[in-house]
Specification:
By secondary structure, this protein is α/β, with parallel strands linked by helices. 27% of the residues lie in helices and 19% in strands.
């Protein structure tokens, strides 16, 4: 582990909030704060539902989960309101000189659903979010498949029946024998396509992030150190963020959403290389889209260093795929979702076929244990101490989450 995360040595044992740029000023001997010049973009057209004629069977899948239908409706309504608008990416969000935000030229009304959102006037949103469970900064995008304006290439099981057939063939190529059942798909019950993620403010922020990201990846950076405007802006946002420090500095890529393009994935690898003091964790289901995605992660993320990319399980109570790091150097061990009555029955380790190597399994304590507030910092980690960051610090361990 010390070879993977050498900067953890001597880190704080007790959690405390601290600005990253202050810490980097100490360890690097220079002030790394990067000042952004405001940059303006225009929404030529909002994200749109894929234009195609769906069969009766496909429509049945598209309406099989009421939360998905509501989420798609809210996104479509807000995307229409954003069409033709201009927005500016700036530093100084909510009065914080280091926080990066996105501001519309004029506010728009919130979606008419849910009713509580009526009357909202939405204009500004922060580029970064802060997840309550993980107690760390994160970046969020719309979750789900493209048909519902999501960014998840591997979420096809949510809506399209014929994709399930192609996915079976893809799993067969990987040597997997999973029997796919839509009602047991993790994507089908994705937390990021319902609940608080349906709030107008959250939908607004995610759509703005997505619209900005797509354009910023194509926009040249003003500083030659960065390959494009997205990398330049995210570097500034993360450097200026406040972290809950507990055993290191941790960032979650995508509390919602996924890597929607190879260029976008490469950009995050570049960001991780620019800030080696921070460990970035990204659970992803791009492996379920095509073999090309598996190969891309191996190519770009070898060695992983501080960029931990875990394949997310596809089916509840099933370890759909394991991309063993010995065979796939860009990948860490998977995350899997189990029901509460099944998670305790899993063996403590698993064996790699044709090898004596065994990989430990770890049950996420945030929901597997009755801990305060269901947070990572209040759970007990593998070392027996309060505070669990296994998802970031143990890439060679599988992590099991309790269905919630």
């Amino acid at each position: 582990m010390s070879a993977i995360l050498p900067f953890l040595e001597g880190a704080m044992d007790q959690p405390g909030e601290r600005l990253l740029y202050e810490y980097l000023s100490e360890v690097r001997g220079e002030a790394p704060v990067y000042r952004l010049e405001p940059r303006r973009f225009r929404v030529a057209a909002g994200p749109k539902v894929a234009a195609k004629t769906a069969s009766a069977k496909e429509k049945a899948f598209q309406t099989s989960h009421a939360e998905l239908v509501r989420t798609a409706f809210i996104r479509m309504d807000m995307a229409q309101a954003l069409e033709g608008r201009t927005f500016e990416v700036f530093q100084g969000y909510r009065g914080d000189p280091n926080a990066v935000g996105i501001s519309l030229d004029e506010p728009i009304s919130g979606s008419p659903w849910p009713p509580a959102a009526q009357g909202n006037r939405l204009k500004n949103s922060g580029v970064l979010s802060y997840t309550s469970k993980m107690q760390c900064p994160s970046f969020t995008l719309p979750a789900g498949c493209g048909e519902m304006m999501g960014t998840c290439p591997g979420a096809r099981l949510q809506t399209v029946a014929k994709s399930a057939r192609s996915l079976r063939a893809h799993l067969k190529e990987l040597g997997e024998k999973s029997k796919l059942k839509i009602e047991k798909s993790v994507c089908q019950w994705c937390y990021a396509t319902g609940g608080r993620y349906q709030l107008a403010t959250n939908t607004f922020g995610q759509l703005l992030n997505y619209l900005w990201t797509v354009q910023a990846l194509k926009e040249p950076a003003r500083d030659p150190r960065f390959s494009n405007a997205f990398v330049e802006t995210m570097y500034s946002a993360i450097i200026g963020a406040c972290f809950t420090v507990q055993g290191g500095w941790f960032f979650r890529i995508h509390d919602s959403g996924d890597f929607f393009s190879p260029e976008y994935f490469r950009a995050w690898k570049e960001i991780a290389n620019l800030i080696p003091e921070v460990t970035f964790w990204a659970p992803t289901r791009v492996w379920a889209a095509t073999q090309n995605w598996i190969d891309l992660v191996d190519e770009v993320n070898d060695p992983p260093a501080n960029f931990i990319v875990r394949p997310s399980g596809l089916i509840v109570n099933e370890e759909t795929v394991i991309l063993w790091p010995q065979d796939h150097p860009g990948w860490a061990m998977p995350t899997v979702v189990y029901s509460a009555d099944e998670i305790g029955n899993m063996p403590e380790s698993q064996g790699r076929p044709g090898s004596a190597h065994r990989a430990p399994r770890w049950n996420c304590p945030a929901y597997a244990e009755d801990v305060e507030a269901h947070t990572c910092v209040s759970g007990i980690g593998p070392d027996g101490k309060k505070g669990c960051r296994t998802c970031w610090t143990h890439p060679d361990w599988s992590v099991n989450f309790t269905f919630h």
